[in-house]
Amino acid sequence: MMLPDGYSDVPAGKIAAVVTHLQMTARPSLLAERAGPWTLRRVADPDVDWFRDLFYRVGHHWLWFSRLRMSDDELRAAIHAPLVEIHALSYDGRDEGLLELDFRTARECELAFFGVTARLIGSGAGRWLMNRALEAAWSRPVDRLWLHTCTFDHPKALAFYERTGFIAFRRQIEIADDPRLDGFIPRSAAGHVPIIE
Ligand SMILES: CC(C)(COP(=O)(O)OP(=O)(O)OC[C@H]1O[C@@H](n2cnc3c(N)ncnc32)[C@H](O)[C@@H]1OP(=O)(O)O)[C@@H](O)C(=O)NCCC(=O)NCCS
After folding, report:
1. Ligand 1 binding pocket, CB closer than 6 Å
2. Of ligand 1's atoms, which has the minimum distance to the CA of residue 164?
3. What's this model's pTM, rounded to 2 decimal places?
């Protein structure tokens, strides 16, 4: 259903974001990166509690809720799916960045989750992690790498992706239950999206 022009009411208790889909259809040149004190490792058999914790620490400021709402079984199936690759960026003895690549559609890769924790935002780790993501994605036989980002995400995320070489091609409105009202994320998170009850 197409939304009409003008303002559309969003019910109390819900949040609404503008989602932008971006893609690249050829391997780009990598932007200059800073070799910081971080490393990346592929996590072949991710534990659900480990994943939830990292997903939460990277994403709760930006209201990433999708994986937090899953049961253990649902989450295990999502992160253990063949052709889904999970990588963690480690810094100072702790995992502080998440990269999830989904190769389940033939000849495509979705950058399903990408980000670093608040400790590392603005440090150069994001660009370094993106370069590793591009190498991992384009090392497989893909014709397209795509992702989506939304207006709850870090305000610099969209421009960061465009500098990387992603081109926007689709825009959607996403409406969801506010994850701060059912206990998945603290009420104090994401002041840029006020709670409306
Ligand atoms: C989106 C996100 C990855 C952007 O990363 P960031 O922290 O702004 O990125 P960086 O600090 O690595 O890079 C910003 C720029 O500063 C540069 N930079 C930062 N620190 C630097 C340093 N010490 N020396 C040299 N360059 C530096 C980077 O090279 C980069 O420049 P470029 O984009 O022209 O290559 C990050 O904000 C994030 O993880 N946010 C939380 C999760 C999120 O919103 N994810 C996106 C949703 S899909």
Report:
1. 31, 34, 58, 62, 114-116, 121-127, 149, 153-154, 156-157, 160, 163
2. 33
3. 0.96
